[in-house]
Amino acid sequence: MAKSQKDQGRFGYSDIFILGDTNVSLELKYISLISLVKNKVGANELEDLDKTIEKEDEKSLLKRPYSYWSKENKKLNKTTIGDILDNGINQLILYMKTISKGKVTNYSSSGVFDKRV
Question: What distance in Å separates the CA atoms of residue 66 and residue 77, rounded to the nearest whole number?
Answer without folding.
Answer: 8
